[in-house]
Sequence to fold (308 residues):
Amino acid sequence: MKDIELILGDALVWLEKIPENTVDLVLTDPPYFLDKLDDKWSHEEVLRAKSSVGTVKYLPVGMKFSPEQAVEFGKWFSSVAYKVFRILKPGGWFLSFSHPRLFHRLVCSTEDAGFWVRDIFLWIYTQNQPKAFSLEHFLDRTAFPPEVKEKLREELRAYKVPKVKSNYEPIMVAQKPPEGTLLENFAKYGVGLFNVKIKQGKGMFPSNIITTDSIDEVMDRYFLIEKPDRKEKGAFNDHPSVKPIKLLRFLIELTTKEKALVVDPFMGSGSTAIACKETGRRFIGIEINKHYYEIATRRLKEKVSLFE
Fold:
């Protein structure tokens, strides 16, 4: 195989084509159902929406929440987790970003597939938009008496839908059970332990808290993995959720050796591919959306040219 291979296609189909017990790490950021997982989804629809939540068309306008989202996501992610389990080496790692509200379903689906959930990384950042909105504009459509409407109107200046500003993403750390002890498994397969020489902050021992924004002297000292400059994303890259390459490098180097095989079933604009290229890992990336696949290909070509 090529050291870096990008595939345009359905992850659930292409994961079946990867030989079993051959992958050291699956590192991915799956779709969260909040941006639609059905076959009517398109990147243009996401770009037209004011927020990713606005692309959920099967919910009433102004009520972009349903408990069924988590249920359906869990069913879908279960099929992903079983396929990932098959291709990983014993002791191999499955790291997945998640929307906080769907994390419990992601973890349960992964455990049901046979994985050990070993930890949770929290990626903390300071910049994000508040998601709460007022229901005041619905009052005039109700049959409430005028005095009730007036009282509620006053209260709704403060009370909004139950959403706060989101400033973290959880990253699941799951492991395929090793053969024998962790030491025996590492000796045979070269995977299953953490490389604690990979530091964060100012040379600090790796932590399950990660920041890419500078917060203050203490937080930066222990947890900061600096955000790269703006050139990293590329002016042509309109993917709505581009992950920092330095963050991905940290996760890759922590869990794998050089020349290890890393797979990303939901490659997006290719940040994991670039992180693998920079760290000397092999990579297979799968992306179902042609537009994002082309962005990933262009980004990788520009990065490869820097190595030549």
About this structure: The radius of gyration is 21 Å. Confidence is low (pLDDT under 50) at residues 35-41, 49-63.
